[in-house]
């Protein structure tokens, strides 16, 4: 008989041991994994948030310092005196020489990142610039010219691509230039290489965690900096309206590419920014669509966002090692439990298998076989019970066999009696009660059978008829008893005569 997978006691023991030993271990491993993942995620998120906040503070400090600096620099008297002159008075004047020296001296405070210092008159015309090629340029449409005149405060622009130098991104600081009476005479404009901001963004990535990266987005969610995917610079995370794209391209804040090449579909990130979330977990297409932990910080002086991200797999790498260790421990415990369960099962099932074989032989007909009782436990009690049952069954079978033999003998005797009675009855049926020879019934049956036989064999049939003369007179004279006796003598004589002729 075929057994199912859990048909044997040994298999059930192994399964039970494994369930009892491994389910708590699996439960503990799962709880530990969840707890560790949460702790690691929280720690990584805190590190990213700290880096994002630190970076946003650095950028804010940089902007604030330069806004204050350009505001103070715009108050220098040499600049106001130069702008107070008419265009004809400015050429080769002492005021021009002083203003030029002032601009050059100011630019030397950061020769690596400052591109130029320039003075713009009230019409937005570049009237003095350390980059002499830009002198005379009309900059009246630029926000760094219009905003200071409107607000009368210093201003910082968004990052813009240089129309002349490939891959150069500039950032402008500006402030109104006033005379001693406080009247605005023009605008002092400082052009910075935006690499300085990108460097501030990238500076904290090494301390925020392994393989972490930083992103800077402007108010339109356009990439201004990306520490590992510079190809995304000046692309928006989601498609922008056509009129906005056109305006930004005119301002030099987006390249003149087709709209489909100016966007990157990051819907989940866009939703987080719109809802002012400080963190999220999302995949970023620019980093191979891997799932990342992302922390978001916002600047104070600009509507920009600093994002620090780290691949979730990197943050949870200790969990992966923990899982591998747990799986090794799980396999070791499973192997040990299986061996122990198999040994215990072998020890427990061996007497059961022995007893099963004894029962099989007994049922096969070996009624004399008995189980050896070698223990006093439940198996030993079962063996004793089997022996008692086998003895009782053997006795019952022997008694039953004897009774069957006696009953068989009785049936044989009864059968013989019945056959004898049937034979006598047959004789009585076919013999005449007076003469004891075959009667008319026997004659009719015998005549019918002989007729059919002789017809098949094509042989003649002979029939002898005889009559007793004057029997009635004899019967009347001697009486019925004498007549009966006469008939008996005649029948016997005829029977003897016929029998002797064969």
Describe it.
- By secondary structure, the chain is of the alpha+beta class.
- The protein folds into 4 domains: 9-31 and 320-363; 37-53 and 199-317, PAS domain (Beta-Lactamase); 75-153 and 160-193, Beta-Lactamase (2-Layer Sandwich), CATH 3.30.450.20; 452-501, no CATH class.
- The chain is 56% helix and 13% strand.
- The protein contains 13 helices and 11 strands.
- It has helices at 9-73, 77-84, 87-90, 94-107, 143-151, 195-203, 242-250, 267-274, 312-315, 317-363, 378-430, 440-457, 471-501; strands spanning 114-121, 126-129, 155-156, 160-161, 169-178, 184-193, 213-217, 223-226, 279-283, 291-298, 305-311.
- The strands form 2 sheets. Strands 1, 2, 3, 4, 5 and 6 form a 6-stranded antiparallel β-sheet that branches.
- α1 (9-73) runs antiparallel to α10 (317-363) and α10 runs parallel beside α11 (378-430).
- The protein is rod-shaped.
- The two termini are 71 Å apart.
- Residues 1-5 have low confidence and may be disordered.
- It comes from Nostoc cf. commune SO-36.
- Residues 346-398 form the HAMP domain.
> Between the first and last Cα atoms, what is the distance in angstroms?
71 Å
Helices and strands, in order, run as HHHHEEHEEEEHEEHHEEEHHHHH
By CATH reckoning, the class of the largest domain would read Alpha Beta
**Share of residues in strands:** 5-15%
Look at the structure and give the mean pLDDT: 83
From the alpha-carbon coordinates, what is the Rg to the nearest angstrom?
Answer: 63 Å
Assign the CATH topology of the largest domain. Answer: Beta-Lactamase
Domain GGDEF: 459-502
Subcellular location: Cell membrane
Coiled coil: 383-431
Organism: Nostoc cf. commune SO-36
């Amino acid at each position: 008989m075929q057994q199912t997978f859990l048909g044997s006691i040994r298999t059930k023991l192994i399964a039970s041991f494994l369930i009892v030993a491994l389910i708590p271990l699996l439960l503990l491993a799962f709880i530990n994994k969840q707890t560790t993942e949460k702790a690691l995620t929280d720690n990584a998120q805190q590190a990213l948030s700290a880096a994002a906040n630190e970076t946003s503070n650095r950028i804010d400090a940089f902007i604030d310092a330069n806004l204050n600096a350009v505001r103070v620099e715009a108050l220098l008297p040499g600049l106001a005196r130069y702008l107070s002159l008419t265009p004809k008075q400015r050429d080769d004047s002492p005021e021009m020489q002083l203003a030029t020296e002032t601009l050059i001296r100011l630019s030397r405070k950061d020769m690596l990142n400052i591109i130029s210092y320039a003075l713009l008159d009230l019409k937005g015309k570049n009237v003095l610039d350390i980059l002499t090629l830009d002198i005379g340029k009309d900059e009246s449409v630029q926000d760094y010219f219009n905003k200071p005149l409107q607000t009368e405060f210093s201003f910082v622009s968004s990052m813009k691509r240089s129309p002349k130098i490939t891959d150069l991104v500039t950032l402008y600081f500006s402030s109104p230039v006033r005379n001693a009476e406080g009247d605005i005479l023009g605008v002092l404009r400082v052009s910075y290489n935006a690499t300085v901001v990108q460097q501030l963004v990238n500076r904290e990535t090494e301390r925020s965690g392994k393989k972490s990266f930083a992103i800077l987005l402007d108010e339109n969610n356009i990439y201004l900096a990306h520490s590992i995917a510079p190809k995304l610079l000046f692309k928006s995370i989601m498609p922008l309206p056509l009129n906005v794209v056109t305006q930004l391209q005119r301002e030099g804040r987006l390249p003149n590419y087709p709209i489909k090449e100016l966007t990157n579909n990051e819907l989940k990130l866009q939703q987080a920014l719109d809802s002012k979330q400080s963190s999220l977990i999302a995949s970023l297409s620019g980093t191979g669509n891997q799932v990342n932990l992302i922390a978001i910080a916002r600047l104070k002086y600009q509507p920009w966002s600093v994002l620090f991200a780290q691949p979730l797999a990197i943050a949870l790498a200790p969990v992966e090692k923990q899982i591998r260790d747990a799986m090794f421990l799980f396999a070791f415990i499973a192997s040990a439990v299986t061996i122990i369960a198999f040994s215990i099962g072998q020890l427990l099932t061996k007497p059961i298998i022995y007893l099963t074989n004894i029962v099989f032989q007994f049922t096969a007909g070996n009624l004399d076989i008995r189980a050896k009782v070698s223990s006093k436990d439940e198996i030993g009690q079962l063996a004793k019970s089997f022996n008692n049952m086998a003895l009782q069954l053997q006795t019952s079978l022997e008694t039953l066999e004897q009774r069957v033999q006696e009953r068989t003998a009785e049936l044989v005797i009864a059968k013989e009696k019945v056959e004898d009675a049937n034979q006598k009855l047959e004789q009585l049926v076919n013999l005449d009660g007076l003469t004891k020879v075959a009667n008319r019934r026997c004659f009719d049956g015998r005549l019918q059978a002989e007729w059919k036989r002789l017809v098949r064999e094509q042989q003649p049939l002979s029939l002898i008829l005889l009559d007793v003369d004057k029997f009635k007179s004899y019967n009347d004279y001697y009486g019925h008893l004498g007549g009966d006796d006469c008939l008996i003598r005649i029948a016997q004589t005829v029977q003897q005569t016929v029998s002797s002729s064969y």
